[in-house]
Design goal:
Cofactor (chains A, B): Mg(2+)
Shape of chain A: globular
EC number (chains A, B): 2.7.1.90
Oligomer: homodimer
Subunit structure (chains A, B): Homodimer.
Largest interface: A-B, 60 and 60 residues
CATH architecture of the domain at 5-214 and 428-479 in chain A: 3-Layer(aba) Sandwich
Largest sheet of chain A: 9 strands, mixed
Binding site for substrate (chains A, B): 199-201, 238-239, 246-248, 307, 420-423
Pathway (chains A, B): Carbohydrate degradation; glycolysis; D-glyceraldehyde 3-phosphate and glycerone phosphate from D-glucose: step 3/4
Mean pLDDT of chain A: 94
Strand order of the largest sheet of chain A: 1-2-13-12-7-6-3-4-5
Number of helices of chain A: 22
Structural class of chain A: alpha/beta
Strand content of chain A: 15-25%
Chain lengths: 546, 546
Amino acid sequence: MEISALQKERAAYQPKLPKALQGAVKIVEGAPTKSVDNQEEIKKLFPNTYGMPLIEFVPGEENNTKRINIGVILSGGQAPGGHNVISGLFDAVKKLNSENRLYGFLMGPGGLVDHKYIEITADFIDKYRNTGGFDMIGSGRTKLEKEDQFEKGLEIIRKLDISAIVIIGGDDSNTNACVLAEYYAAKKYGVQVIGCPKTIDGDLKNDQIETSFGFDTATKTYSELIGNIERDCNSARKYWHFVKLMGRSASHIALECALQTQPNICLISEEIEAKDMTLNAVVENIAKAVAHRAEQGNNFGVVLIPEGLIEFIPAIGRLIQELNDLLAAHGADYKDLDKDAQREYILSHLSKENAATFETLPEGVARQLSLDRDPHGNVQVSLIETEKLLSEMVAAKLAKWAKEGKYNGTFAAQHHFFGYEGRCAAPSNFDADYCYALGTSAAQLVANGKTGYMAIVKNTTAKTDEWRAGGVPITMMMNMEKRNGEMKPVIRKALVELDGKPFKTFAAKRDEWAMNTEYVYPGPIQYWGPAEVCDQPTKTLVLEQE
Amino acid sequence: MEISALQKERAAYQPKLPKALQGAVKIVEGAPTKSVDNQEEIKKLFPNTYGMPLIEFVPGEENNTKRINIGVILSGGQAPGGHNVISGLFDAVKKLNSENRLYGFLMGPGGLVDHKYIEITADFIDKYRNTGGFDMIGSGRTKLEKEDQFEKGLEIIRKLDISAIVIIGGDDSNTNACVLAEYYAAKKYGVQVIGCPKTIDGDLKNDQIETSFGFDTATKTYSELIGNIERDCNSARKYWHFVKLMGRSASHIALECALQTQPNICLISEEIEAKDMTLNAVVENIAKAVAHRAEQGNNFGVVLIPEGLIEFIPAIGRLIQELNDLLAAHGADYKDLDKDAQREYILSHLSKENAATFETLPEGVARQLSLDRDPHGNVQVSLIETEKLLSEMVAAKLAKWAKEGKYNGTFAAQHHFFGYEGRCAAPSNFDADYCYALGTSAAQLVANGKTGYMAIVKNTTAKTDEWRAGGVPITMMMNMEKRNGEMKPVIRKALVELDGKPFKTFAAKRDEWAMNTEYVYPGPIQYWGPAEVCDQPTKTLVLEQE
């Protein structure tokens, strides 16, 4: 199997561990915890895993631990560093007792249910150290939420004499990890479940979890590309580049990339929602910046757009809601009409406000919303190419202003969407170290008999030596939220906080960035070289921890 | 002005020079040269710049040279390393005589004609050393081909007491540099013109020019992204990724990226043309690979597509030709027909062969070809999203095979287009050194009174020390070709050679890559670290020079 020069050299990288995890470990337990909200309900749903203390690891004395076998699962979308969590876990369990075994369930949580697994051995894992991707054991989106899945999993757990399952995933996967932990605890099966915080989206974080792994590497990769595009933009001086960034629910990725690259415009979904902005208002803001720059002779620029934007625009949300109801009720008498009649039909049946919103949409998007529906009959918002939608609407607005003599520039757009380009990049030094420490922590939580915990590593803006590792009860991060019409206990998703430091830092600079050209070109992730270049955490993390 | 940590540290990089360029230089002249073809015609068109000898620089003795002022121009699309050509030029001319001046004409060749320029000073240039982009002085696509442009340029050349113009550009720009050199020589204006080989496309190379600058960095950047996508593809195991790569005329970029990343499929336009393949045959080949992988349970893969593909498919070329003629002649009676009638009209008016080709096209593409035309009335091939066209046609083919019981997999596609992501990346060590050496060579060609030459650096797969620098008469690389209906003297464009080592190496492996999953993940360009990672030239260059 051929591997690249970088892979060869990078394989030798030894991730740095916090001091407390470098040798034998003992645990220090804090006071009992409670959930962030809905304490009574969460407590009732998780009688066996509620209220446990926070845990911190400190240096301890070597003592032989009993033999343990662990099963590990990668859940959900890829994030750089997953292989290093598994490496940290592997090295730590083998160090605890060389007879310990680590099993990897294949292609996500489904592997547990379907009994698909491999044993992870030293030879096998060495090929994956410090590499990106989840291809070591694969990942998948099967949700572990039903008792028959839990019982089916137990069969293979028993067969392999596994005492703990480590689930590496995002907020939903960790919520499910906790449900599984509670179930196995209630049944007294003696099987522990530990979670690890993964997501490039950055939306799994809170007072206990400083950041999720993968966010660092993914945002640095996207920022490399955005910086390259900015430099091209500033050299050719003839295009507006509309760059959509992966991440459906929160705008952390867009915000971090903006802090790194200083584009002319960056939209933050959470702000647009909070201000109840219309799509037209969003477009007008962009068009104003374009027009202002044109007055200075600068008919070029860069706009960052979070993937989930459309769903955060309240007026669009209301329109989609009504369209879903309308098409569900009248789909039949509507679908045989011709194109123009369909449009008329929709406009005449929508409420006045939603009809007005519908009318502002470019024809292609309007048709997408009124025609393409998913198997549940819902409008498929994810099919909308937001970056093209916005640039088309900006172009239309500018054309109108040109007619009115208010605009006199040229406007040509290029479109980009970055997602798959960063989810499997080789982890930065930060993510390589952070993930390895998370895996090591997970092993120690298992060795100490814990269940329903997530592995955590804190103080991550300090030197690795000074990072603090431990565990947090997953119930502590939960509240009740409506999901598919039902109230469910879930880990609260972290959206961009408009009074948080990262957003405020961005908001204080953005007018300058819009008017002037203050691009910053971060360049590609460096694994060797000056620490200033190789070992910096994200701007978001630094600002949040300041 | 804020700059990134990488920029700060990278600014200190001192590009390595070939031994011959490290100190004082003297020139060794070879035998007279002749053009690669059409010698009589080229000689007649370039009486003053034809037949000059190849030049090589060797270490010489320090001697004071006369004062010279030089003007430099960036021409055409961005390529990583342009700023280093100018840095090399600047350092060399200042070393020759600290009174020498370097002027940069702004926004491309138009800056010379319109007298827009700046003086490049030590303070100014330091900010741009080892950076990507052409933003130092901007670039543009104005073609220098008319006498009034040459005369207008002369005015500012005289005013600034400039004795030589250095034009950094691709094949067309260097052809024009030669025409300008010949004109100034014929008029005995005493103004020298020197070219530098730039293009990420890799199509400006020949026996004298081993590679054009920018190709190294751009292909490494694209390969980083393709590798990341491959790793995602191999982790999620559910998508076929169709990746289009910039470069209209030659497939060097796609070929180099394939050699670096070993995708399942890489299309090479030159091969498709040589084999007179139809679009349907291209699609069928891809679909066969998809079906074969599906049989092994692998419903995923990566396909690389050169941007210019469509125009290389002979059947499509013939169709477009006839459509252009047909729509020009009958556009009027056709344009008011409705959609279906338009299609009928076209099908009934095309020749049998072209009608058959037209019928195989997806509706959207067929409409694009028959409706959207440029101001000259021509079909706009560049609007066709080849990556989507191919994946749609593959999906249709697979659906047909599924009905016939010949295919039983799932097929879902993702699309990418990489171009702007790599044109302005910070130059790799190779491009940083190569460009600096080219700039230094250009200065020495000027100092030695040469005109109509292009700066060259050879032996570039050896250590930098052993690189050989010199100059090649531009006329030596010329032949006569038809451009816009007229025979013109031009530098022969280098397409992928089907009997060359890079293609043959690829062709020998591609079946294995298609059937198995042998992805290689090159990772991001590294500027520090092991030489194996940081200082390797492209695979294309290594194979060609073996």
